[in-house]
Amino acid sequence: MGLLFKPMFLSLLLFLLWHQTEGENFSNANTTRLSRARELAGRCNFFRGKWVYDSSYPLYDSSSCPFIDPEFDCIKYGRPDKQYLKYRWQPLSCNLPRFNGLDFLERWRGKRIMFVGDSLSFNQWQSLSCMIHSSVPNARTSLMKSGPLSSLTFEDYGVKLMLYRTTYLVDLVRENVGLVLKLDSIQSGNAWKGMDMLIFNTWHWWTHTGRTQPWDYVQEGNKLYKDMNRLIAYYKGLTTWARWVNINVDPSKTKVFFQGISPTHYEGKDWNQPSRSCDGEMQPYFGASYPAGIPMAAVVVNKVLSRIKKPVYLLDVTTLSQYRKDAHPSDYSGEHGGITDCSHWCLPGLPDTWNQLLYATLVS
Hints:
This protein is α/β, with parallel strands linked by helices. Helix content is 25%, strand content 18%.
């Protein structure tokens, strides 16, 4: 992790230990939920496996999907290699069911599915839209966008795939002092109520500093802070989100997922090639374990999910995504603005596997 990150890790560890006994809104009886969530297909852990070459991939053609944003359309914007499209995730002790878009629509006929999060939720939402569209290319669709909300409806099935863009899940509010990140407030959560499925995600923007930092102050209670240890702030924000789930979600009506931490590949030292980044990478990392280890943000996610009262299932995509240093847009994007993108993912590509895992948990 590097010497610079050790003080941050120790601070986080001490903070989590200090809060170990706080439980007024959480239930320690749920500490086994994460292991169960990782074994949603009987005894199989979908998230432990390896990437294998499969000539039948990808699951759809990017040119035939009308929903792909230029940010993710790597082939259209000149990526010359195609091998990154040909890898399939293979769990160690079972097979993932092949995604069936028609079956997905029939199972969720008349339902509303919402992705809630940042641009990586956008990435996954577009992926699922393309995967379904490839199964029913002649189905009538309508696309609506209004503020932070986008909604794609498959009219013949009454299925709404929705995206609510929110950088932090908790509120970012403009006040007299500037933009304030409110760690204990989720007013925007009113838009998430009444869904049949919710898939949450946040982390990417919590690390941003300097000119790319969207907020001026962090607020907790009545106290304003110019800055805060980002992992501790993330823990506090996720804890607020967990309280929202506990209060507002009826598990008999709504399934809730949390997308695990999506890694970046800006620093080749993470896979023992210090001079590299994702730019020019054409193969996954094939080692037995990823050299950088589990990111500290994943420790926070696991801690919060282990204490939540309501069923929230972790799409534990972190490790399998760490291996895919080859799957980013890098310079092959319509919106990179001259900046190499090692954060988001090409479509078709890795988010299709995230959605295969989502589908597998739903049908198992």
